[in-house]
Amino acid sequence: MPTAETLAAHVFYEDRGTGPALLLVHGHPFDHTMWQPQIDRFSRTHRVIAPDLRGYGDSPLGAMTESTDLGEFAEDLVELLDQLRIEDCVLAGLSMGGQIAMELYRRHPERVRGLVLADTFPAAETEDGKKARNAMADRLLREGMHGYADEVLDRMVAPYNTHAAPHVHRMMRATDPVAAAAALRGRAERPDYRETLAAATVPALVVVGRDDTYTPVADAEEMHALLPDSTLVVVERAAHLPNLERTEEFDAALAAFLRSLVRPS
Predict the structure, then answer these.
(1) Pick the CATH number of 3-260 from 3.40.50.720, 3.40.50.1820, 1.20.1250.20, 2.60.110.10
(2) What CA–CA distance (Å, rounded) separates 100 from 77?
(3) CB atoms within 10 A of CB 170
(4) Residue extents of the structural domains in the chain
(5) CB neighbours of 204 closer than 8 A, spacing ≥ 6?
């Protein structure tokens, strides 16, 4: 897989297909293979870029740090687009990846033609949430990823979607706990993106699994209401990873959205 050296990180990425650019940003604690079904399908019609965020998958964390904020992830992605000579893209992110997408759009709206926000939410962290994220970061540094992966698997992937569970479990267990802890601490300090969404000037697709308990349907409905030009799709019989749990339904929604963005010749 190719690698691009940004100012602070070596970002590994998959780059497949030709056509309009589609940048896929994975969630925590996963890697770019979270998007494998979408890479395989949409690279037939688009240039699909799927990076490993710094500290995840094959991208090293780099200099030792206690916290990686969402802005650092976003700037890595912009530098990757620069190195690939991609002026703008459809930007899709799931969970933490969705918040990174919102941060990238907040900083560089000219680089985004359309937003896909899946199983994510725009509000800043609550005080209780900050404490919980920092406590989990401490735990991951003490214990590693295995116990955490076992505990949360049934929330990431609904128990009735057993076909997706092994891949998700492997990704979580393989994640570097130091990088995961740094991302949790940075994510705890993220800004509120609701004003960014309310001022968005690009079309957006909001997707959520009906049975997602991390980012429930109400969060998706709030984003849909904030965004001036958005479509909301609720994927039935899916939890936090509908792109893997119900790939056909997720891909149908994404395909329809991408078709709506085709520029006249």
Answers:
(1) 3.40.50.1820
(2) 9
(3) 14
(4) 3-260
(5) 114, 115, 116, 117, 197, 223, 227, 229, 230, 231
Q: Where are the alpha helices (DSSP H) in the chain?
A: 36-42, 70-83, 96-107, 127-143, 146-156, 165-174, 177-188, 194-198, 217-226, 242-245, 247-260
Distance between CA atoms of residues 244 and 175, nearest Å: 18
**pLDDT tens, N- to C-terminus, the chain (265 residues):** 665 555 545 899 999 999 999 999 999 999 999 999 999 999 999 999 999 999 999 999 877 678 999 999 999 999 999 999 999 999 999 999 999 999 999 999 999 999 999 999 999 999 999 999 999 999 999 999 999 999 999 999 999 999 999 999 999 999 999 999 999 999 999 999 999 999 999 999 999 999 999 999 999 999 999 999 999 999 999 999 999 999 999 999 999 999 999 765 4
| Half-sphere exposure for 45 (CA within 13 Å, toward CB) | 12
